[in-house]
Design brief:
The complex is a heterodimer of chains A (614) and B (378). Helices cover 37% and strands 18% of the residues of chain A. Chain A is of the alpha+beta class and 614 residues long. Chain A folds into three domains: 2-55; 60-247, Alpha-Beta Complex (Penicillin-binding protein 2a (Domain 2)), CATH 3.90.1310; 318-482 and 490-566, DD-peptidase/beta-lactamase superfamily (Beta-lactamase, 3-Layer(aba) Sandwich). In chain A, strands 2, 3, 4, 5, 10, 17 and 18 form a seven-stranded mixed β-sheet that branches. Chain A has a five-stranded antiparallel β-sheet with strand order 12-11-21-20-19. In chain A, helix 10 (251-260) runs antiparallel to helix 22, helix 14 (328-338) crosses helix 16 (384-394) and helix 14 (328-338) runs antiparallel to helix 21. The relative contact order of chain A is 0.10. Helix content of chain B is 67%, strand content 3%. Chain B is mostly helical and 378 residues long. Chain B starts with 15 loop residues before the first helix and ends in a 7-residue tail after the last helix. Chain B has one domain. Chain B has 13 helices and three strands. In chain B, helix 2 (28-48) packs antiparallel against helix 3 (53-74) and helix 5 packs across helix 12. Chain B has helices at 16-23, 28-48, 53-74, 78-102, 122-139, 147-165, 170-186, 191-212, 215-225, 234-248, 274-307, 311-335, 355-371; strands at residues 104-106, 109-114, 119-120. A three-stranded antiparallel β-sheet of chain B has the order 1-2-3, with helices on one face. The chains are: A alpha+beta (614), B mainly alpha (378).
């Protein structure tokens, strides 16, 4: 036993030793081959490679693609690329940065702001990337630097395309803007496809459609001299430019809407109910997006940031306001469909409403009351008591169930970034968010679009479009078509259908349509001033409280600060028989919907429906 | 049995230094080779990094940690390592699966496991666990292994290799595969089998090429095998690195005088392509000097394996040494343009790399094997 183990042991150790020797021989043989190969490179072909190393300094440089253009629905350009010259420094190639900056400023005017921006950009830039010290050089400045270029290693003029938004503040909130890629964005982008690209979409359409707009990077093999300057291009793989976008927006309508606000702030959204196209989307005030492209100066930025009007805030998709009385057509429809009310059944309005066994008075906007009102009167004159009663009879659960299909309380899914979803209050929501039970009083004020209820202007416009289309709920869209490379015509983006609002009795739509027509056409209609002979408008005014008036006080518009005044709202669609446009308008601290918000909607509709025919 | 004389152990009159080394279970020749190599490496790194002392300091810290790990591993008896082998292997496989499920992505591949205090790359553990496992498995029965055991060992190698290739990390999965295969080779894998594998691989590859691939896939393979086909992509690295090597000549351009790396024509000059910097600045003479140090280390490693007293130690020691050679050959072959581009560092010279610790742990095992021997009854 012991003998055989020992024999095995000896045999195995002999076997291993022979394998170890073979392994050693393989190692030596392969390394010899390697050494032979290296000696060929280093001794036989040495002269060849020395020449290559001394004269042919070949480098691969990325060629950034040209960013796609953005057009409005009629082919008007909204975002373009303008050729400019900028003076740029590659800090890693400059020996004494401070001295260089000082000498440069003697040659070309460089402001304090330019230097500040340069230092800020330098602190978060990729290595060996040039940073602009001056942008938009004049031809004379370009020439002056070109003559002295040899004095400034690491400094060069860069001809490049600068993003430009010709419509400035009018389209700022839709398009967003591009800006220099920052450190955080560096982590999330594909570095190789962005090599050479300095700018990226930061907001709006520019951000949402970044992939389409950006294009694909190209490469060129270049010969450079010892200082790293390009002498000639050897090989070239051209970049693939970004795709052009065609928006649903009508730029002239956008301008009309913007101007219609006058001095007021607010938002307006116009949608085509037939396909969900957003024809205009205004958030006022706007700002000049061109400021952001080459790095905004901190003075400009602070001015925008600290302005009370908050121009950087996109009210159309991020502003959340109580819908006020503009919610009444939807609630009325819910009442009809659920059978809680009929169109002609009357309720008595004494000017207030009380819950059984409660002393608290829920007031109507008209102190004297509306008397006996049916559904038409309640919409036309915006009677609150009618809706308090209706809401109480339906209960919060039923209300929520009927309102949700119109898109309240959820994002519309529009194709720009940053949209908020508003809030459709419900028993479950309150339990989860506030850890409190639902009170009947809250049902009442939900019935007139106050309390917790919040909508965005885009959401209200989309719901109005859905109402205009008799329940055909479409996702609102900003981009109509994308121009793909090498294709003759741009590819249309699909119309996205959402769940249809389920109203079983067709006459309920007619009843509500007729009631909303009375708002602009009836003698006592709250928006009767926008009645016109060209087309019929179905609409609803609204007022959203900014603060609560105490029980025994009276809301007096003249006595309170402008910032505390009610928001004025209006939602409408036209022509009533065959709706082509649905609009939602909110004027911040505007007061009455009928007098302030409705005329803005009218201006938008006029331009779209009347001008269109010429 | 003269060769069982414990040559590395103190004999009758040990000097003070030898005594300390013996107490620490270190092998003097191997230690000398490693220290020489690391010093040479730091010299090149200083130049390749653009004389950046911060880089040198960080590399020194890494080397320090790696040497401490080596000394620690050298204290563990081979018999203990043998007992641990299946456990390490099992833990390694579980961690590889965890990485695929919940790992962190770095440089486009999923390799790291975040353990709260530090990040850990399980594929590094597996580099040692696979040869340990295969050596443990084959040492159970007498050698050379039977066909059935070979098949089981093959599956044990294949599982981690595929898991690492999925991350994807081609370089490491190649190293792990070679670690396992070298154990088989050292165990006396028959030449008939080796020849048979090569003979079957050729027609399989041909069938795959003709019918199994689309045009673009074939192009990718061609570019992988010959990067210079794509001068704007991977080929650019190789072209630049060949210019660096070739322009170095017999004596080189002199330390700190390389132009290719300074003007940034050479990408990854401090990491995977550091060999080209060496070749440019120290020329063919410098390369030969470096190769001599490597050969000395490899030969010492094989000698230690041959002197080992049990099958497990022999197989493991031989495989660890040969994997070190694979590092060297794949890297230098890639940089000089005779092998495809696979991301493998030049061992103990390239900057950074978690592999540094693994390599030194491997040498710790070799030292343990050599310094824990006993006199056998003859």
């Amino acid at each position: 036993m012991y003998q055989s183990t020992l024999k095995d042991y000896l045999r195995e150790s002999r076997l291993f030793r022979s394998r170890a020797i073979i392994a050693a021989l393989i190692v030596l043989l392969l390394l010899l081959l390697l050494a032979l190969h290296l000696s060929k490179l280093q001794i036989v072909d040495h002269t060849h490679f020395t020449t290559l190393s001394r004269d042919n300094r070949v480098k691969v440089e990325p060629l950034p693609p040209t960013r796609g253009l953005i057009y409005d629905r009629n082919g008007v350009i909204l975002a373009q690329n303008l050729p400019t010259h900028s003076l740029e420094i590659t800090p890693e190639r400059v020996k004494d940065l401070e001295k260089t900056l000082q000498e440069l400023s003697q040659l070309i005017p460089i402001s304090e702001n330019d230097i500040k921006r340069f230092r800020r950009l330098k602190s978060h830039q990729r290595r060996f990337e040039s940073i602009p010290i001056r942008v938009q050089l004049t031809d004379e400045e370009v020439a002056r630097f070109a003559v002295n270029r040899h004095l400034f290693p690491g400094v060069d003029i860069h001809a490049k395309l600068l993003r430009d938004y010709p419509k400035k503040d009018v389209t700022a909130h839709i398009l967003g803007y591009v800006g220099r890629i920052n450190k955080k964005e560096l982590q999330s982008i594909d570095n190789s496809s962005y090599s050479g690209t300095t700018h990226i979409g930061k907001n709006g359409v520019e951000k949402y459609y970044e992939t389409e707009l950006h294009g694909e990077v190209g490469l060129q093999q270049v010969e450079v001299n010892a200082l790293g300057r390009v002498i000639r291009v050897l090989e070239n793989k051209p970049p693939i430019p970004g795709k052009d976008l065609h928006l649903t927006i009508d730029a002239s309508l956008q301008g009309v809407a913007m101007r219609a606000f006058g001095e007021d702030n607010g938002a307006a959204v116009a949608i085509n109910p037939e396909n969900g196209d957003i024809l205009a989307m205004v958030s006022k005030p706007g700002f000049d997006p061109n400021l952001f492209v080459e790095g905004i100066s901190s003075a400009d930025y602070n001015a925008l940031k600290s302005s009370e009007d908050n121009p950087l805030f996109n009210r159309a998709i991020r502003g959340q306001y109580p819908p006020g009385s503009t919610i009444k057509p939807f609630i009325g429809l819910a009442g009809l469909e659920s059978g809680v009310i009929s169109a002609t059944q009357k309720k008595f309005c004494p000017g207030f409403f009380q819950l059984p066994n409660h002393s608290h008075k829920y007031r109507d906007w008209k102190k004297a009351g509306h008397g006996a009102v049916d559904l038409y009167d309640a919409i036309t004159q915006s009677c609150d008591v009618y809706y308090y009663d209706l809401a109480l009879q339906m209960g919060i659960d039923k209300l929520t169930e009927y309102l949700a299909p119109f898109g309240f309380g959820e994002k519309t899914g529009v194709d720009i970034t940053g949209e908020l979803g508003g809030l459709l209050p419900s028993r479950e929501w309150k339990k989860k968010a506030r850890k409190q039970p639902w009170y009947p009083g809250e049902t009442l004020i939900t019935g007139i679009g106050q309390g917790y209820f919040l909508t965005t202007p885009l959401q209200l416009a989309s719901s109005t479009a859905t109402l205009a289309a008799r329940g055909n709920h479409l996702k609102p869209r900003i981009v109509k078509a994308i121009q793909h490379n090498g294709e003759a015509a741009p590819t249309e983006q699909p119309v996205v259908q959402k769940d249809k609002v389920d109203i079983k009795t067709e006459s309920n739509w007619d009843n509500m349509l007729n009631a909303m027509l009375q708002v602009t056409e009836g003698l006592r209609g709250t928006a009767r001033r926008i009645r016109n002979e060209h087309y019929r408008i179905a609409g609803k005014t609204g007022t959203a409280q900014v603060f609560t008036v105490k029980q025994e006080e009276k809301y007096d518009e003249d006595k309170i600060d402008k910032k505390m005044r009610d928001h004025a709202l209006f939602m409408a669609f036209a022509p009533a028989e065959n709706p082509k446009i649905a609009v939602a308008v909110i004027v911040e601290n505007g007061g009455h919907g009928g007098s302030v918000a409705a005329p803005i909607a009218k201006a938008i509709m006029d331009h779209h429906l009347i001008q269109d025919k010429h | 049995m003269a060769h069982y004389k414990p040559s590395g152990l103190p004999e009758s009159n040990p000097t003070r230094a030898e005594g300390i080394l013996a107490d620490l279970h270190l092998d003097l020749p191997l230690l000398t080779g490693l220290l020489l190599l690391c010093s040479f490496g730091l010299l090149i790194l200083y130049s390749a990094s653009g004389q950046d002392m911060a880089v040198i300091e960080r590399q020194l810290v890494r080397l320090g940690i790696a040497f401490v790990v080596m000394i620690a591993v050298a204290q563990v008896r081979p018999s203990t390592l043998r007992r641990w082998a299946p456990w390490l292997f099992g833990v390694g496989i579980l961690m590889l699966i965890a990485v695929l499920l919940a790992g962190q992505v770095g440089k486009g591949a999923q390799r790291w496991l975040n353990l709260g205090l530090f990040r850990f790359q399980p594929s590094e553990l597996v580099k040692l666990a696979v040869p340990m496992m295969i050596a443990w498995f084959l040492a159970e029965k007498s050698l050379p292994p039977r066909w059935s055991r070979l098949a089981i060992a093959g599956i044990m190698i294949l599982i981690p290799v595929l898991l690492i290739a999925r991350q994807p990390d081609l370089g490491t999965s190649l190293l792990v595969a070679s670690a396992g295969i070298f154990v088989l080779f050292m165990a006396g894998l028959s030449w008939r089998f080796i020849g048979g594998m090569i003979l079957t691989a050729i027609p399989v590859a041909w069938v795959l090429w003709e019918w199994g691939m689309r045009e673009y896939q074939r192009n990718r393979v061609l570019t992988f095998l010959n990067p210079e086909r794509d001068p704007l992509g991977t080929g650019y690295h190789i072209i630049q690195s060949k210019i660096a090597i070739g322009s170095g000549g017999v004596y080189g351009k002199g330390w700190l005088n390389g132009t290719q790396s300074y003007l940034e024509f050479l990408p990854e000059g401090t990491t995977d392509f550091i060999f080209a910097v060496l070749a440019e600045e120290f020329g063919f003479t410098g390369i030969l000097a470096l190769l001599v140090i490597y050969i000395f280390i490899i030969m010492r490693g094989l000698y230690i394996a041959a002197q080992a007293q049990d099958t497990f130690s022999r197989l493991l020691g031989g495989a660890i040494t040969m994997v070190f050679f694979v590092y060297l050959f794949v890297n230098t072959g890639m940089v000089s343009g005779i092998l495809p581009v696979v991301g493998v560092p030049l061992p103990l010279v390239s900057y950074g790399g978690t592999s540094l610790v693994t390599i030194m742990a491997g040498f710790g095992i070799l030292m343990s094997i050599h310094t824990h021997r006993k006199l056998l009854p003859t």
